[in-house]
Structures are given as C-alpha cells and as structure tokens.
C-alpha cells in the first residue's frame, strides 16, 4: 500500500517572525552553496511551502541579502563576549575572547568565500560607527581591569587583538597556516621575545 506524504502546514507566525525563520533557514544554505540555491531548497529547509517565501519577501535576491546581513551581524558575538567574566586572569579572559572571535571570523570567511565577496556587504571601511564598534567596546571593557599592567591603553589592546585574530585566522593571509586562539593571545601579550624581560623598542 502506497504511503501518502502530507505537507505540514506552516505554524502561524507574524510576518516578522516568518521572515526571521526563513532567513535563519537560509543562512546555512548560503554558507554551504553560496547564492546557487533555489527557493525550493530554502522552503524545504524552513519547513514551509515555496509560496510562503514570497508572502514576506519581494524576491529571492532580497531574501539572500537579508540572510547575508544576518550571518555577518555581530550581535550574537557581542552577547557572548559580554558574558565573559572579568574575574578571570587577563590571559584567560583574552583566550575566551579569541576563541569567540575565531568562531565568528571562521564563519564569516566561509560565507564570504561561498558568495565570492572579500568583505561583508556594507562593510566598506567607512561605516560611522563601524559595524564592529560595539564588539570592540566590549573587548575594551574586558581589558580595562588590567590597564595598569599594560603598556598600551585597553582600546589599543582590543584593536591589536582583533588585527591578530583577523590575520591569524584568515587562510589567505596566513598562507593556510592559521594561528590558534591561544597562539594569538600569547603573541599579543608576550610577542616573540625569548628572554625573561621584553625589550623596550
């Protein structure tokens, strides 16, 4: 006896909730396949009928744009960084920060490679404030308790940590020999000097 497949009716949602759910289902597809995906694939991933997409999005391109924006938005990273405790020693604090940045940057690099961009859409270096300003402010606050032990102000320590993470984790910058989060933190705090005292340059 043949088995009949029944399409599950999409659960009732507001238009905003529906858009958010569709975008969330689209992001992994874009990360894996780039823009070479169909609305049928998106609908299957979201568990909805294909026509439901066009009730809340003008077209597929507008959905893909929102999916990319959602994937590169730093909000979740900021929340995770904000949860890091300042009671940890500085090196452990920065290690947690570097691990969080590693996850974010690896994910963004993968997405950018899939869609053929070399920087996140809308990030042309002229944002005011930059997209990552909130994230950097959180890192600065995490460094602040140790200000008196550092040669540089917390904001500069945060900036250099981000630079080292970006270069250390980006395969085209590090020649496919990435640094680990622990190596990034060690380089930031101790450099490459082998002596017991760091030289004054």
Please, what is the average pLDDT? 89
If you compute it from the alpha carbons, what radius of gyration comes out, rounded to the nearest whole angstrom?
Answer: 21 Å
Largest sheet geometry: none
Through-space gap between termini:
82 Å
SSE order, one letter for each helix or strand: HHHHHHHHH
Helix content: 55-70%
Uncertain regions spanning at least 5 consecutive residues: 1-5
Q: Helix tally?
A: 9
What does this structure look like?
The chain is mostly helical. It folds into two domains: 15-70, Arc Repressor Mutant, subunit A; 73-118 and 131-190. 59% of the residues lie in helices and 0% in strands. This is TetR/AcrR family transcriptional regulator. Residues 16-75 form the HTH tetR-type domain. Residues 38-57 bind DNA. Keywords: DNA-binding, Transcription, Transcription regulation.
Question: How would you summarize this macromolecular structure in one to three sentences?
Answer:
The protein is an all-alpha fold and 201 residues long.
Please write out the topology.
Blueprint: H1 15-33, H2 39-46, H3 50-56, H4 60-72, H5 75-82, H6 90-115, H7 133-143, H8 154-169, H9 181-190
Helix pairs in contact: 1-2, 1-4, 1-6, 2-3, 5-7, 6-8, 6-9, 7-8, 8-9
């Amino acid at each position: 006896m043949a088995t009949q497949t029944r399409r599950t009716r999409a659960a009732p949602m507001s238009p905003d909730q529906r858009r958010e759910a569709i975008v969330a289902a689209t992001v992994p597809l874009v990360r894996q396949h780039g823009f070479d995906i169909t609305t049928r694939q998106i609908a299957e991933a979201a568990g909805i009928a294909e026509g439901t997409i066009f009730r809340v999005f003008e077209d597929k391109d507008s959905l893909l744009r929102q999916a990319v924006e959602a994937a590169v938005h730093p909000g979740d990273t900021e929340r995770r960084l904000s949860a890091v405790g300042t009671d940890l020693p500085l090196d452990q604090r920065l290690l947690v920060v570097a691990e969080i940045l590693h996850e974010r940057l690896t994910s963004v690099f993968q997405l950018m490679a899939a869609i053929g961009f070399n920087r996140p859409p809308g990030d042309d270096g002229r944002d005011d404030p930059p997209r990552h300003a909130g994230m950097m402010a959180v890192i600065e606050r995490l460094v602040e308790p140790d200000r008196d032990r550092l040669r540089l102000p917390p904001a500069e320590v945060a900036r250099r940590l981000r630079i080292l993470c970006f270069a250390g984790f980006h395969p085209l910058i590090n020649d496919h020999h990435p640094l680990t989060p622990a190596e990034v933190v060690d380089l930031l705090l101790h450099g490459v000097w082998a002596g017991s005292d760091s030289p004054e340059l």
